[in-house]
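Notes, Module 5: Reading structure tokens.

Key idea: the token line is not a picture. It is a compressed description, and you learn to read it the same way you learned to read a sequence, by spotting repeated patterns. We will look at two proteins. The first is printed below with its tokens.
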Amino acid sequence: MSARDWDATSYDRVSTPQVEMAEAVLERLPLRGDETVLDAGCGSGRVTALLLDRLPEGHVVAVDSAPSMVEHAREALPPDRATVLCQSLTELTLDEPVDAAFSNAVFHWIGDHGRLFQRLSAALRPGARLVAQCGGKGNIDAFRRLADEVAAQEPYAEHMSDFKGPWNYASPEHTEALLAAAGFDEVRCWLQPWPVTPDDPLEFARTVCLGNHLKALPEELRERYAQEVVRRSGAPLTLEYVRLNIDARRSLVF
């Protein structure tokens, strides 16, 4: 399956739950205010702006693989304080190492976490910290099962019989091992339940949760499918998010 682009405008509008998650992650990142920090998977730039608030004399290198997100972030962020790059994080290459790395709601979209952590390690100066959060083991399991049940029925089944999502909802133990192998120490990973009840259930589900499902369908079936999944989920729609938190330091000797 090829990587999908996003509707950056819709994501920016419905991503308040992700912003709230990001605020908790930013609280874990110690900053003086003059550093250069990598935002690994900057999305629309809404969270990057919060990171810039923590860096009154610093700079952000914001990276995303989705062209629409990069375009939106470039328009939203001050160009003298944020460098926005369109790159895959598994192929990340920076001109200079950064002082810290931050990421929110991104890593579960990447299948190869080993390669991801290797590239992040290479982007960080020795001793720099990585603070991140993403979907972890068990994330929105019930919603995804329901989406699969609807996908197995006609008229969707003929288009989705081979559907396999890109998600990588990892365990803390496996993540800690991959981080250590990539050159990180002081590694700590843990799961955190984070239920979300979106203000606009259909737009949130369509944009955030079902984008890859909808890509597999012909355009004339996409809205019908999204509406059916949300309807069967009940009201109000509550998504049982499980967040994988990551704190680690780029080793001084790796």
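Here is the second protein, with the sequence above and the tokens below, as before.
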Amino acid sequence: MATIAVFIALGGGAYAVTLPKHSVGTKQLKSRAVTAAKVRKSAISSPKVRDFSLLARDFKKGQLPALTGAQADDSDPIASLGTVIRQTTLMMRSRGKLYVLATLGDPFLNCTAQGPCSTVWGIYVNDQPVNDTGLRLQANPNQADGRNFYLLYGMTSTEVGPGSVTVKLARTNSSNVLDVGELGAQLGTFAVGS
């Protein structure tokens, strides 16, 4: 009897359970039971991540490539805002640069007999000009200048936001302008980065 008692005491309530393969799934796991520390390194690879399930905030700063752009031979807009042609507002959650784009259908300029004249279209973010997003037309007295179509585009040189950001397509005229305008215009923007 003593031997049996010692065997039971040593054995206690210990027992082994064997679970069938693939029998534990999401229904058997408690919420938050699997933490990052319990996931084997490199166990989650790109093919195992659902497409479009990751957001920019899921990455550390600097992990995503920084987008950039450049263009040449376009004018800078006038520093002070002129006549607003189109306007849009963007709500930004964090700071970032903006890519801006506008189209002008048939921009034109006619000068009076009193002298030469000019006009400059440009894109402005929070009333600040975006470099290289300008179009300048100029003509002599009693003459005209124009284009069939023109595309303005560029990126802010500094980050803007968070909060409400206003983007404007505007035109600034010199004196001696008889007639100026465009037959159509569109404006768009999107945030890039952080």
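Summary for the second protein:
- The chain has one helix and eleven strands.
- The domain at 83-192 is CATH 2.60.120.760 (Jelly Rolls).
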